[in-house]
Amino acid sequence: MKSEYITPSVTLFKEDGSLDLASQEKHYQRLIDAEISGILILGSIGEFFALRMEQKKEMIRHAASVIKGKTQFLIGTGGMQQGELQELTAYAFENGADAAVVISPYYFTMNEDSLRNYYGAAAESASGMPVYIYNFPDRTGYDISPALMLELARKYPNIRGVKDTIPGVAHTRDIVKTVKTEFPEFRVYSGFDDNFAYNILSGGNGCIGGLSNVIPEFFRDFRRALEAEDLAKVAQMQQTVNRLMDIYNVGVPFVPYIKAALYALGYIGSAQSTFPLPGASDEQIRKILSILNYTAE
Fold it and tell me: Does the predicted model carry a pTM greater than 0.90?
């Protein structure tokens, strides 16, 4: 059975807070070498919310030079200002993006009319290129219903997928039933790593999961086990992922702790995050390394 595991890449910074594009290139290349299914930049784990527009454009130009043509290239373009949403979405496709991943508006809960206007603006600025809805209720405060996703897919043919970042599986399952029944090519991705296997078994397309920043080879092998229908291997790897999910609970928010894992393993030279995100303590780094030891058992 076909499946995809896409990495929502971290954004790397120097100690002074400036973009570290040299380290970023090495990180992308490591993911590409591990045969990950795609790379998403400027997602939640990529700290899009704290970057200026020019920094986002610099990230896009740089990522395009490294990723384009080697694996799927996805770009997060969501934002709270209409002009910036449309400008960044258009810019993403000018620079070779395969899809724009657009988080729904945050801070205030939005009604469905507002969401229709918002995703309509994103779809129209994409010039027919694929736009994926990004549903993350833990950050936006509300869900986007499967029924509304179906309505948007009917009205805007280039709205062609969703990243559904929800701890449980019921909402994602309902998207598969509601939208893919009418639009079989609509891409349905889970946003949490432990939902990958269930997503595929339910008819979805895979996962856009943050842990693959740290151990991409593991998730490549997880994908291969599913594709080979090696259920014993899938079960074993699922149990490992269930333990690895504890990394998300080492501290709040989870972004700096994914970077701390990369730093502790020697893959990056700095775990610097944007203000005011915290850094990991020595005790938290020890906890992260203890959790990662599960993959070696």
Answer: yes
Domains of the chain, start order: 4-234 (3.20.20.70)
Kindly give the confidence (pLDDT) of every residue in the chain, 297 residues in length, as a single tens digit, with 9 standing for 90 and above. Answer: 899 999 999 999 999 999 999 999 999 999 999 999 999 999 999 999 999 999 999 999 999 999 999 999 999 999 999 999 999 999 999 999 999 999 999 999 999 999 999 999 999 999 999 999 999 999 999 999 999 999 999 999 999 999 999 998 999 999 999 999 999 999 999 999 999 999 999 999 999 999 999 999 999 999 999 999 999 999 999 999 999 999 999 999 999 999 999 999 999 999 999 999 999 999 999 999 999 985 544
Spatial CB neighbours of 59, under 8 Å, sequence gap ≥ 6: 11, 19, 24, 41, 42, 46, 51
Catalytic residue among 56, 163, 259, 287: 163
Residue 163 annotated in active site: yes
Are 59 and 227 in contact by the 8 Å Cβ rule? The answer is: no
Q: Is 91 a catalytic residue?
A: no
Q: Which of 3, 44, 104, 202 is catalytic?
A: 44
Active site residue 106: no
Measure the CA–CA gap between 151 and 166, rounded to whole angstroms. 21
134 is catalytic: yes
